[in-house]
Amino acid sequence: xxxxxxxxxxxxxxxxxxxxxxxxxxxxxxIDTLGKELNLSPIPIREAIRRLEAEGLVTIKAYxxxxxxxxxxxxxxxxxxxxxxxxxxxxxTSISQVTIEQIGELHxxxxxxxxxxxxxxxxxYIKLNKEFHLCTIKYxxxxxxxxxxxxxxxxxxxxRRLKPMYFPTRAPEAISEHEKIISLLETKQPSxxxxxxxxxxxxxxxxxxxxxxxxx
Amino acid sequence: xxxxxxxxxxxxxxxxxxxxxxxxxxxxxxIDTLGKELNLSPIPIREAIRRLEAEGLVTIKAYxxxxxxxxxxxxxxxxxxxxxxxxxxxxxTSISQVTIEQIGELHxxxxxxxxxxxxxxxxxYIKLNKEFHLCTIKYxxxxxxxxxxxxxxxxxxxxRRLKPMYFPTRAPEAISEHEKIISLLETKQPSxxxxxxxxxxxxxxxxxxxxxxxxx
DNA sequence: ATATTTTAAATTATATATGATTTGATATAT
DNA sequence: ATATATCAAATCATATATAATTTAAAATAT
Lengths: 216, 216
What we know:
homodimer, 216 residues, mainly alpha, three-stranded antiparallel beta sheet, 3 strands, DNA-binding
């Protein structure tokens, strides 16, 4: 049972405050204040903030201090657009590994997604939607690709918490599109068709957003 | 003219030592030694190493120290495979922005690539090849996507320096494939065709590598 | 001779103090 | 009243010292 170093404690604390939306974008992170709050000296705080800077969550201005990074709302859709390309690709490169078990699991998650929609459980919906998509690439053997996709899902989560804005879910359509995705996987349809469908599934949220923004 | 902080100096120093292959994978990075070498106290060294850890270049084991990260040779091809998907996508999403100037620039770079090959200038070839590919996505408006692709090219460069292994170039084929890419862009061929050609262009190196590895 | 334990050395992790820089408040000039 | 300069406060950045941990070497036991 290895005890976390102080630096690690500070990192986890600050990081979760950011990803949970408690620290808002633009908020100053004052090293002395954080040190007092956590009963640590400034050094482990500074190291933790350096790590968070490298992850893009925090922006450090030399000699001025650190703030929670500002997020341009475009970024959500840029990441989503990039994810659209990668996820489709990851799914088709692991299509030969698809199992009956995985198909069953996807069906199960999609049932839970539908239930979350019926219960007006937005957070549950978002969490399960991510699970569904990560399940589609479960057997992706390209570790770099898998990790990158995971990081992108995390990034989307973080932006949603940091940036109050409208995030389109298209829940009813998405749920039925999930069923289609499962079907495409189960029947091992041509790679192109699978890749394009998954890509369009994600890009549809961007179109939805643009439709709403231009009409208001 | 802003003077770099000591932390920044340490970061740049260590980072370039790694990316230039002077520090080899697995090499211990001893904080005191680096501090003496740079005439700095341990704190800015530690902060720099934290940043490098977050970039994956360095692996820190708590209380034991930092080493230059080990690279699994698979990673090169995993990153290249992921890049294949992303670059094709980035090119087709910015196809409408292609200019005569860009086409001319691509031709020019490819001429220089051919010259580097004739002069047995491996490093020049690698550098120009990267330039060529970054030029194909020059007008990509999705900043996240552009930055990600740039980072991946950097990653490939770093792995090549850190990991002594065979890296297939297929130089003559690659050069003529570049010409084909330029032609596809110039004539605004269908997105699918462009995307697939670029993807296959990159994946061909992986096939080449596998061919050579299984035959030896 | 080999295995285990103990000790010493090397290095990491962090506290505290101090120097450096930026920001904000106040005073002065126009 | 507004603009500029000066000063003070807040905070950052880092040096130095100390505590903590790991690793390697030496001593002891089998």
